[in-house]
């Protein structure tokens, strides 16, 4: 029986743990939280931080693993890469991990291979931040600021003329681990993500996902829909850009999640993750719309096995998150009614009674969501919206 180490045992990694178990694989889950929900599904639990490279490497050696992976999280990618390099496993190398998790290094790698990206600057202090912001705004662009080393929409701010720049700088800096910020042109246009699998250097695009966000100032994703409703010509441009970008940062074997803005000058890269996409995109939406099990494919690649990416469905799928009033949650009603809505596949309550509904500043602030599958994208979206309307979140006055 092959042994697979999965970094992370939160609800985000449970689909990978369950899929591996279904495939008859011995699963070793790693998480710093001893009460992580995914531990109950794994064969063995190891309580170590997924960013503790030396600690995870030691456990990987001791357990004689055949493969290592993570899904829906960028933070363990450096650990995955180091273990793959040291133990000769299939996966990304350290250079690729750095390119895929550090927005500054990612931009540099893409620029050096002529991949379409926005105007950008990497800054480490307030003086350089002011200069970079001015250069971008002098070109007539809005300016967006991001920590170079965080994900999940954490620490992202759009700079407006009326903003207190010192406050924007402080907010973004607080959310950066190393302290480096990326100041870049805010790209106007439709936003999509691209779900891909690379094998032996060939990148195959499985699906293109339309997405909606909260918009300024935090840009938290509030919905995804497959397949994209963009024109075939634009989707072809997006596929070619994705394949070029994936090669540029060094992904040869494994999944990738690429975010793209379709600007007036054509598609441009927002960022790339050398992992399966989060937000239930690759675990739920992709199989519902295409029939392709990307989690299974990623597991097989990590174990050095051959994969099949044949599409067996031509359906539409969607997810929508509910925006709620702020305050302490007293009760959540209407869940059973929401589950009965046509085309609904799943209703999930993330934060329940006794917890706080706060302003949506990052993906962890969202209260609940609905997932649907339908014949058309319009129907899939409508079903999600109808289901969420039936859910009433009572807030303490």
Automatic annotation (TrEMBL):
GO terms for molecular function: ATP binding; ligase activity; metal ion binding. The keyword Ligase applies. Residues 107-303 form the ATP-grasp domain. Gene3D superfamilies: 3.40.50.20, ATP-grasp fold, A domain (3.30.1490.20), ATP-grasp fold, B domain (3.30.470.20). SUPFAM superfamilies: Glutathione synthetase ATP-binding domain-like, PreATP-grasp domain. Keywords: ATP-binding, Ligase, Nucleotide-binding. It holds the Pfam family LAL_C2. This is ATP-grasp domain protein. It comes from Anaerococcus prevotii ACS-065-V-Col13. The lineage of its organism: Bacteria, Bacillati, Bacillota, Tissierellia, Tissierellales.
């Amino acid at each position: 029986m092959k042994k697979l180490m999965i970094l992370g045992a939160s609800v985000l990694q449970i689909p990978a743990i369950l899929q591996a178990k279904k495939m008859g694989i011995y699963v070793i889950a790693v998480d710093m939280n001893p009460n992580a929900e995914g531990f109950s599904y794994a064969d063995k639990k190891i309580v170590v931080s997924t960013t503790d490279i030396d600690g995870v490497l030691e456990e990987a050696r001791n357990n004689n693993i055949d493969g290592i992976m993570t899904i829906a999280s960028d933070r363990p990618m450096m650990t995955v890469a180091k273990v793959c390099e040291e133990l000769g496993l299939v996966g990304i190398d350290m250079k690729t991990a750095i390119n895929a998790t550090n927005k500054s290094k990612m931009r540099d790698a893409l620029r050096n291979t002529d991949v379409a990206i926005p105007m950008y600057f990497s800054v480490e202090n307030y003086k350089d931040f002011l200069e970079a912001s001015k250069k971008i705004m002098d070109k007539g662009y809005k300016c967006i600021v991001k920590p170079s080393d965080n994900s999940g929409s954490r620490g992202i701010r759009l700079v407006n003329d009326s903003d207190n720049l010192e406050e924007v700088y402080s907010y973004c800096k607080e959310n950066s681990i190393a302290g480096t910020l990326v100041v870049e042109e805010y790209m106007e246009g439709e936003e999509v993500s691209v779900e891909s699998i690379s094998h032996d250097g060939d990148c195959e695009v499985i699906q293109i996902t339309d997405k909606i966000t909260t918009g300024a100032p935090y840009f938290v994703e509030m919905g995804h829909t497959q397949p994209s409703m963009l024109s075939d010509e634009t989707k072809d441009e997006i596929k070619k850009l994705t394949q070029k970008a994936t090669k540029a940062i060094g992904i040869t074997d494994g999944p990738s999640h690429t975010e793209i803005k379709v600007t007036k000058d054509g598609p441009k890269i927002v960022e790339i993750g050398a992992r399966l996409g989060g937000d239930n995109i690759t675990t739920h939406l992709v199989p519902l719309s295409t029939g392709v099990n990307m989690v299974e494919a990623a597991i097989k690649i990590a174990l050095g096995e051959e994969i099949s990416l044949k599409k067996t469905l031509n359906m539409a799928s969607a997810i929508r998150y509910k925006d709620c009033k702020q305050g302490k949650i007293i009760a959540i009603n209407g869940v059973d009614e929401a589950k009965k809505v046509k085309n609904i596949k799943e209703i999930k309550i993330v934060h329940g009674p006794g917890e706080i509904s706060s302003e949506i500043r990052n993906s962890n602030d969202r209260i609940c969501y609905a997932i649907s599958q339908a014949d058309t994208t319009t129907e899939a979206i409508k079903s999600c919206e109808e289901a969420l309307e039936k859910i009433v979140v009572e807030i303490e006055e």
